[in-house]
Write a structure and sequence with these properties.
Order of helices and strands of chain B: EEEEEEEEEEE
Radius of gyration of chain B: 13 Å
Helix content of chain A: under 10%
Largest sheet of chain A: 6 strands, mixed
Largest interface: A-B, 27 and 29 residues
Structural class of chain A: mainly beta
Number of strands of chain A: 11
Number of helices of chain B: 0
Oligomer: heterodimer
Shape of chain A: globular
Distance between the termini of chain B: 35 Å
Largest sheet of chain B: 7 strands, mixed
Structural class of chain B: mainly beta
């Protein structure tokens, strides 16, 4: 069964902290893994895409890693800001072209 | 191109009515996905198109749900005889075929069944 799990479900940190969000998946036969951001009542905004052959991707203060063999990905956010408050979702595109999501981590960054 | 477009943004309907949502993907994208999302949950896969072919359907997609993508362009998702449990955000995403392409999402259609 192709399951995606995100831990923690919710996280609250003071502004300026570095933080790590976790994503795990049960089937290593993947094409890629994508991290998204979702603001309340809105659609999903793509943050980073990691192909199955890659180990990490960086965009600004965001760094995502992928360990396909262990079925894990992390999203690292440096120097967090209140504007980073949102729900972060990871999605795995499996080799059967099925894209599955975790339930998300709801992040609150307090000023 | 302004990205993936979904219409309407909001829909309120009475139980038992039929509703139809539309998704216009990014023009050159040949993959199109439909998801359903309820409060506090991640998006749940409903169905997937490669061009005009519907390649996979989730068991969530009961016989009251149908999706089409004529000519491999826009897609519609229809729910017949709506139930209160159908109330959710319906999200559409598109991407190019291939392992190194990003999926892009629309803003979603929020359905409320009263």
């Amino acid at each position: 069964k192709q399951e995606v799990t995100q831990i923690p479900a919710a996280l609250s940190v003071p502004e300026g902290e570095n933080l790590v969000l976790n994503c795990s998946f049960t089937d290593s036969a993947i094409y890629n893994l994508q991290w998204f951001r979702q603001d309340p009542g809105k659609g999903l905004t793509s943050l980073l895409l990691i192909q199955s052959s890659q180990r990490e991707q960086t965009s600004g203060r965001l760094n995502a890693s992928l360990d396909k063999s262990s079925g894990r990905s992390t999203l690292y956010i440096a120097a967090s800001q209140p504007g980073d408050s949102a729900t972060y979702l990871c999605a795995v595109l499996y080799n059967n072209n099925d894209m599955r999501f975790g339930a998300g981590t709801r992040l609150t960054v307090k000023p | 191109d302004t990205g993936v477009s979904q219409n309407p943004r909001h829909k309120i309907t009475k139980r038992g009515q039929n509703v139809t949502f539309r998704c216009d993907p990014i023009s050159e994208h040949n993959r199109l996905y439909w998801y359903r999302q309820t409060l506090g949950q991640g998006p749940e896969f409903l169905t997937y198109f490669q061009n005009e072919a519907q390649l996979e359907k989730s068991r969530l997609l009961s016989d009251r749900f149908s999706a089409e993508r004529p000519k491999g362009s826009f897609s519609t998702l229809e729910i017949q005889r709506t139930e209160q449990g159908d109330s959710a955000m319906y999200l559409c995403a598109s991407s190019l075929y291939g392992s190194n392409t990003e999926a892009f999402f629309g803003q979603g259609t929020r359905l409320t069944v009263v």
